[in-house]
Design brief:
By secondary structure, the chain is an all-alpha fold. The protein has six helices and no strands. The longest helix has 24 residues.
């Protein structure tokens, strides 16, 4: 196995570990993060949203549309999770669905469109006709 594959796998596992830590033991994870002022979490959310946008932008600019579709599909969990967080932490269902639910639908629709695209046909070069 390549070293870079191992390192990339560790990055993926770290993301799952930290994300699940916050979901399953939020107070413990927050204490380990190092931010004492709760307003610091706005910075964390903002940076993560920008990172998601940059990931999608890179794939879009590199014309990796299929990979972009899968990333957009996976990242649909963001507005779905935001919707659930609003509903379960004092927000109204109507507002959660209007803002985050509609975003989730838009993201899922975009992923569906990207994943059903056909790859453009490659131009076939005619072979030269041998001289008689």
């Amino acid at each position: 196995m390549r070293f870079t594959t191992v390192m990339a796998s560790l990055v993926v596992l770290a993301g799952f570990y930290f994300g699940l830590s916050y979901l399953l033991a939020g107070n413990w994870a927050a204490a380990g993060f190092g931010i004492v002022d709760p307003d610091g979490y706005y910075v964390v959310k903002g940076v993560r949203d920008i990172a998601y946008g940059l990931t999608a932008l890179i794939l879009l600019l590199m014309k990796q549309r299929r990979a972009l579709g899968w990333v957009v599909l996976a990242d649909a969990i963001i507005p779905i999770g935001d919707c659930m967080a609003v509903i379960t932490h004092g927000g109204t269902v109507g507002y959660a669905l209007m803002v985050h639910g509609s975003a989730a639908v838009l993201v899922l629709f975009t992923a569906w469109l990207l994943l059903r695209e056909k790859a453009p046909a490659r131009a076939v070069q005619a072979e030269p006709v041998p001289a008689a």
